Each structure stands twice: as C-alpha cells, then as structure tokens.
Fold these 3 entries.
Entry 1:
Amino acid sequence: MQVWELISADPDKGAERLVSEYGDRLYATAFRLCLNESDAEDLVQRTFVKVVERASTFKGESAFFTWMCSVLVNFHRMDKRGKARNSLVLGEEISEETPAPAPDPAEMASAADEAAAIRAAVAHLPYQEREAVVLHYFDGLSVPEVARAVQAPEGTVYYRLHEARKSIRKFLSKVFGEERIKADGRGVAQ
C-alpha cells in the first residue's frame, strides 16, 4: 500500500510511515532552501501536516516526493513573502535576490574543503536558482518534476540551472583558483 493510501485509510499509521520514509530527505531539502535548522524543521512539520490533510488529493501525476516538494516550496515562498512584508513595515531593506552569507573564499581555499565550498556556492545563489539546484541535483528530481514542484515552465528551470552552474563555477574559481577548475566547468579538478 502506498503511503498516501495508508494516510487515507489510517492517518496515524500513514503519518508515521510518511515521516519514517520521507522525513530525512524532506528535511535536507528544507534545510538547503532555508539555510537554518529552526526554519527547516518548522517548514517540514507544516509540510507533513498539509500532506496528511491533503493526501487524498494526490493524483499520482508526479512522484509523491515531487508533490511533497511542491507543498514545501509553496510554504517556503509564503514565508519569504511574509518576511519581506514585515521588513517593509519595520523599514528594513530586504531583497529576494540577496544571497545568503557565504564563507570568505580565502578561508575556504585554506581549508581545501570542496564539499563545504560547493555548499557555500549553492547557499550564495539567488533563491530561485538555489531552489532549482536543490531539487534537481540534491534531491534527484528531473527537470519536468522540478518545473511542477516550483510551478514554472521547464525552460525556466533549465535557465535557472544554467545560471546557477555559471555562478557556482565562478564562486569555486575564486575559492580554488582557475587552475583547479576543470576546463569543461563541471567541477573541481582532482
């Protein structure tokens, strides 16, 4: 029995199975989007509640995880809009495209930690590009699945991934130097 069917039949057992099967993966997605533990935990909790409430509406047109990601992404976008509205009321300056703070490239180079450099590069991306990268590369969703999850045309997702790869290459070249970045731009050379 699929998890959404179990939720409809027995919400308690279904919710338990939902958390055990998807909890870690959904938290990882939320953390990569939120960039902090507290917001990620809250986002996952609200997503699970909504998924349990709405499991009967899942039509199977996409993978179940893709559907859950669309719920998570929608909650995250609502949170971002709410924070933007609050900042306007309080007179604070905020931009949707303001990248998250990233470690100093010189510190990253001295640590020579490629995984940390890649995480920092992804965290530094504008939100819509980070969203596409997280769902596609970290969660393994196909471009059509990402498009459904973020409610954008596939071409837009391809463009966001392209721009994100350019930004990541640029960031990594600052961290590790041009000579360590492969000529084809696919990553850090060994």
Note: The CA atoms of residues 110 and 175 lie 9 Å apart.
Entry 2:
Amino acid sequence: MMRRWVQTWKEAGPELEAIRREEIRKADNLEDLAVFEGAFNQALRSLRPEPSSGMIEMQKWFAKLAR
C-alpha cells in the first residue's frame, strides 16, 4: 500500500508542477492587488500610528543607558 502511494505521488509530481507553473504564468497580479486594495485601505484607516520621532526614541535610549 505504501509503495503504491509513493509511486502515485512520483507520477503525479511532474503533472502537479506543470499545473502550478501554468497557474503562475496565467496569474493577473494587478487584478489580485485590486482585490486586496479594499482590505489594505481599511487596515490603514483602522490602525492608529503611535506618535514617535527620532528624538523621542533617542531620549528613551539615553534614559535606559543612565539606569
């Protein structure tokens, strides 16, 4: 049973790889990006950036070093 299973995958491997390559070749990346654009924009609107600057970060490091 195990040998049959291994043989089946050996035979199917090249065919599956050919299908994968064809799907990659036919992929429309611009269409895919357009599909995700709405979700990306929603994430940008809902996430609040932390107020920070290089000066604030530097002061945090100096405070840690002083301890």
Note: The helical segments are 2-26, 29-46, 54-66.
Entry 3:
Amino acid sequence: MSISTLTHKGQTTIPIQIRTYLGIHAGDKLEFFVDEHGRVILAPLTGDVTQLKGMLPKSKRKVSIENMNQAIKKRGIKHERN
C-alpha cells in the first residue's frame, strides 16, 4: 500500500510505485472522478483510450444514436434559454 500526505495547498506526491504503474511523468494530465460506489478514481489522460473500457457500468437500457442526438439537441435548447 502506498501512502501520501496532503499539503495545506491541496497538493500531494503520487508515490513512485503508482506513477510507474500508471506510466505517468511530470507534466502529464490526470483525471479524478467518483464512481457509483463513492470511490475516487485517478486516471492518466496520457494513456490509450481503450484503457478506459470497463471503468463505467454498462447502461441498463439500449439507446440509439438518434435518441442520443435528440437528447443532446434538447439539452442544448434548454441551455440557450437560460
């Protein structure tokens, strides 16, 4: 297990074992998000997009491209009104 300390500025050092595992280096971009179980996930933005497969649960319902485009268009109209 790797441990890191948070500074008063909200900064931390990612332990070398984790940096090596993720293949990240100084200057690389990282993404943080919270999954459906409340866990915080750290993912490098420098990796291959195929590495993201399986990180999110599969949708419980099927949605067509047309339905997605309609939802995006509808959402865009709501933003234009506000």
Note: The radius of gyration is 18 Å.
